[in-house]
Amino acid sequence: MILTVTLNPAIDKTIEVCGFKLGGLNKVITVHQDPGGKGINVSKVVKALGGESLATGILGDGPLETALDALEIQHDFVKVSGQTRTNLKVFDSTTGETTEINEQGPEVDSFSVDAMLDKIAQISQEISIAVISGSAPKTLPRDIYGILIRRLKALGIKVFLDAEGELFSLALAEKPHAIKPNRHELELYFNRVLSSNKSLSEAAHFFREKGIEEVYISLGSEGAYYLGNEGEYYLNPLKIKAHSSVGAGDAFVGAIVYAKEQAYPVEERLKLAVASSAGAVMTIGTKPMSREWIWNHVQSVQLTRIESEVPKA
User: Fold this and answer.
1) Contact partners, residue 273, CB within 8 Å, separation at least 6
2) Which residue among 55, 136, 147, 246 is least packed, with the fewest CB closer than 10 Å?
3) What percent of the chain is helix, strand and coil (3-state, nearest 5)?
4) Residue 6: enclosing H or E segment and its boundaries?
5) pLDDT tens per residue, range 229-272
6) What is the set of active-site residues?
7) Which domains does the chain have, with CATH numbers?
8) What is the CA radius of gyration of the chain?
């Protein structure tokens, strides 16, 4: 089973306008609401591909569980007082740009995290991989993902980390099995521009030498990059008409963990991730693309294998 951990879930409210006017009147064209938070987005993609996951984490009051029930996504959250946050995403159909306004969410303490870990421990033998992704409540320590990784690995669970800033950097010492930063997040981590394929390769090899088995780097409209035991690849992007980039990285991660659980060969796994990510940017809100569209475009994805010595993780 795939486990997704979301410590700060949200209701994603996507508003579409035509010609966003900062400080002016904006008339709404469409409004969409989806259950959100990066881990929950991963669960939605796994479901769209035909797989099953269990969404867990810390949850306040609100309609999120009802929304997950409607999507037939299994969930088991630790409940806390306070309202589940709403993340507002304003999509400008004229420019194709999305402006995000994210709330902080309810306060969470370490006792709630321990209760969540107790839930996970009870079903740990059923879990093959756990995805830890997104933000964490400000009331939790910034090394909270490192704490989770250590506890999950002690239960024999492989961990995929998708986070940024301190949540990312402080978790690396616990050696998650896989990571998926984007280029901007890596540039913040290394405090330098990573504009060439060579610089991306050097960054990925750095993490491999630190003991991380798989490094995925998302590059937006430029595709993605992969380094792992099975080789080094540049993943060419699909040529599509994007609607919004929101959720593309989560779709990528969802496809990877689904394909890993299904024991797909590395190249099929990478192609599925690119197709799923491309499909996600064509949908409104944070909905995944349909399974049919994704599978119809998998074989159109082009991979470039990079011949280099892959360090042992």
Assistant:
1) 216, 224, 235, 251, 252, 253, 255, 256, 259
2) 147
3) 35, 25, 35
4) strand 2-6
5) 999 999 999 988 766 677 899 999 999 999 999 999 999 999 99
6) 250
7) 38-85+107-305 (3.40.1190.20)
8) 19
